[in-house]
Predict the structure.
Amino acid sequence: PPVPKPFPPYVSWKDTNAMILHSSTTIETKRASQGMGLITPAEHLYVRNNLPAPAASILDDREAWAISIEGVKNPRSLSLRELKTVGLESLPMVLQCSGNGRGFFPSKPSGTPWTVGAAGCVVWTGVPVRQVVELLGGALPGMPFMTSTGGEVLPAGIDPKSVMVERSVSAQAMGEALLAWELNGQPIPLAHGGPLRLIVPGYQGVNQIKYIKRLAFTAQESDAKIMSHGYRISPPGTPSDPTQPSVQEMSVKSWINSPLPERPGTAGPVQIQGLAFAGAHAIKRVEVSVDGGKHWRDARFIGPELGKYAWRQFALAVILPPGTHQLVSRATDTAGHVQPEQRLENVHGYNNNSWADHAVTVTLS
Ligand code: MSS
């Protein structure tokens, strides 16, 4: 087998055999390596950085990392050391890049052509944002947005707004958001936003701000380019603009990870296996088809349920005769949203949850 390219230093601890290095800041989990893992090991978790990761020295004194909390009655800066005394919560959650599935768009949008591997299910530990906000006297009235800023040192000589990672979500998202310092029970590695990261459960990856240095309740959405023009669902042929929907909550989605074309197995009894999740709601049902979506059967859930923000493992036992089969899965969440057959076309290839696009074609002998 070809020797994988060496990974850059900040991700040198990743399992290079399990991952696809698209660039130094975009690294995907292989579909076969994603398998059925309920919790994705950090060594397999995808990486997406819009800017180069900050210097590793920001982890030298993790406890000293400070975040400025603004748009509250008593705004002030808190160190990680102080945050650890305010509250403690753990949350298993699917972290997914909004561009996951972009590789299936026939229009070949610019950006990383992720298939399924810009997603993982991991456990975050930190303090609930609402407890920090309560400590500081509550959010000010008339502030519909929670706006968070990443701590990257910005390149000199360019308008900071054009490169800074700053995103706004609904202020209501504070209800379940965390300021997290642990990933799967370990201090968050630099690649995933250590020392401190914002976690907004159920939201697409771009809203999960790494190296967070400021969290503000604001009257307006951020005017940083990544918010105003980036990550917008732009209809085909139109330039991005702030009136188009922004990438926010995730939508219901599932895919099969076994069998795969690269590991088809043999004809006869087969356990079809996959993963399903949604944004704000738990998964209620997953159906599987072995004929490209003509007929469907209910899969069964396997493994424990780790809350509505984690993914669910599903399996269906079938007998597959020799030949070529098109395997697909279709998830439904508890609010009744059904994974659609078709993707919503958009210029930048976001939010692809089409079941047809995630089909796997296997040939068994
Ligand atoms: N944060 C910061 N600070 N920076 C950057 O760049 N990115 C985003 C998030 N956050 C960033 C941040 C994105 S975009 C994503 S996906 C995520 O992150 C990822 O994560 P990880 O950990 O996996 O790497 Mo798309 O929607």
Notes: The longest strand covers residues 323-333. DSSP finds four helices and 21 strands in the chain.
